[in-house]
Amino acid sequence: MKPISLTEQLMFNTVRIEAHDGSSGTGFFFNFQENELTIPVLITNKHVVNYNRNEIVKFFLHLREDDGSTTQNYALTLQTEWFFHSDKDLCFTFINPIFEEVKKRTGKQVFYLANDEGLIPNKDKLMELSALEEIVMIGYPIGLWDSKHNYPIFRKGYTASHPAYDFNTKGIGLADIAAFPGSSGSPIYILNENGYSDKKGNTYLGARRIIFLGVLYAGPTMNASGEISVVDIPTQQKIISRTSVMTNLGYYIRSEELLEFKNLVREKLKQQNSR
Prior knowledge:
With about 280 residues, the protein is mainly beta. It is about 10% helix and about 40% strand.
């Protein structure tokens, strides 16, 4: 397959991740830019890697063919170093070691498409949005995925709070979307392939738009007494309690929080250059 449309391209942005205990979640490729260098990383939630900076993880990848397409999948189990966000449930690992290991074992490159900093909206861009926007989340809920082709699941929902404003906590937004085990680490977008309308009523026929809103990490649950609590989206299908139910709402970490990682990337580059 050679992806053409935006949605086809996003099929190769996410990665199914399995930790050593069999739990699973979603990761996605992201490119940081430092001067002339492009640094590719894989981002997910800390709880997907069990809060372990040296977690052994199984990555489900695609292989690139000589003609630039992809027809083969490859699963690689590898221990990598995970770098943690200072206070948000986010982490990343450098993916060049993963790519090098795949090349060594298969003789092929990994086929992938990465997000970049240009998809992260600034405050002005977010203020142009309406309180209610249709969103798309891509990942591997309740262990569901196209295992034959190694493709993720696309799900639609809506913003449940205005994307320009924090929902109670700095850097957090709320989405009206069902968040099941395996969805942790899923990227959330405003995605339009064939036109859209803005909140002023202007219509952009045939225009494409993609805005990277954030990364799913938790969801509110309600018990029999009506009490609401926020829990990490589980990485395995297990009962939280006999009376707890999910509310079809999901908390996401706003994409601007990823920019904190640039300092860690710079530090790592300095260490490499000083050797």
